[in-house]
Design goal:
CATH class: Mainly Beta
Structural class: alpha/beta
Shape: globular
Number of strands: 19
CATH superfamily: E3 ubiquitin-protein ligase SopA
Distance between the termini: 32 Å
CATH architecture: 3 Solenoid
Order of helices and strands: HHEEEEEEEEEEEEEEEEEEEH
CATH topology: Pectate Lyase C-like
Radius of gyration: 20 Å
Largest sheet: 11 strands, mixed
Helix content: 10-25%
Length: about 250
């Protein structure tokens, strides 16, 4: 999709449209039994999805809470979007730009995040048949006891990602980018080929066999921490500590 089309998708959204969607989400969260339904003033997309493409969540963001929804097309969305204790099926988040530490928790199935920006996303515990190809998922974090099943992380940037007590079953990770700050702790890999690179790996198994603890990027991580300490000290001295990121990466 070209830039002109994406711009058109974004410009069609008015403040009233966004507010109406927020109201729908609140009303649907009060309905005990799923499925929950949403609509916009535009027709569904060609594949039958609710057309939410290009929505800008603004400062207030968009909260999807306590609902079970399917076929939402949020491609090219921007701003704080969070999914809390909800089940999403066949939804599209390709090329979204999420900010302010987004959360996607409970269940995601057959959802796509291709080329999305998911910095600091908290994800899990059930992620099934989802596609993160080309996503920028730096500092992504799995919630406790997350299971990724048949998920694709090809060419995904997982620099600084933290996976603890997480299982990967029948997943693919080709040309996936890790860093010295990427962590796999108490994880299990089943029929999932892995090249950990500089990642920190502890108490992890592959097809039932223990994977030796390793941290090939330890020296790089320690050097990054030292540089961060110097940068932070200078910012404090200049009265600009609030402008320094909360982590070395």
């Amino acid at each position: 999709m070209n830039k002109s089309t994406i711009t058109t998708l974004r410009r069609r959204w008015t403040d009233a449209d966004v507010e109406d969607l927020r109201d729908q989400l609140i009303r649907q969260s009060r309905v005990v039994r799923p499925p929950h339904t949403l609509h916009t003033r535009w027709p569904d997309t060609d594949d039958g999805s609710v057309d939410l493409r290009g929505i800008d969540a603004g400062d207030r963001g968009l909260d999807i809470r306590y609902v079970t929804v399917q076929r939402l097309d949020l491609r090219f969305a921007r701003g704080p979007v969070s999914v809390y204790e909800s089940e999403l099926f066949d939804c599209r988040f390709d090329s979204v730009v999420l900010t302010r530490q987004p959360t996607f928790t409970r269940r995601l199935e057959r959802c796509t995040f291709q080329d999305a920006t998911l910095t600091r996303l908290a994800l899990g515990p059930a992620v099934v048949d989802c596609d993160f190809t080309g996503a920028k998922a730096r500092r992504l974090r799995s919630v406790p006891n997350t299971v990724f099943e048949r998920c694709t992380f090809d060419a995904t940037d997982l620099s600084g990602a933290e996976f603890r007590d997480t299982s990967f079953v029948d997943c693919t990770m080709r040309d996936t980018r890790f860093s010295a700050a990427t962590t796999f702790e108490r994880c299990s890999f089943t029929r999932t080929d892995m090249e950990f690179g500089a990642s920190r790996v502890t108490r992890t198994t592959s097809d039932g066999d223990a994977t030796p603890d390793r941290w090939d990027g330890r020296s790089d991580a320690e050097a990054a921490l030292d540089r961060y300490a110097v940068r932070y000290a200078r910012a404090v001295a200049a009265g600009n500590a609030d402008t320094v990121p909360l982590d070395p990466e």
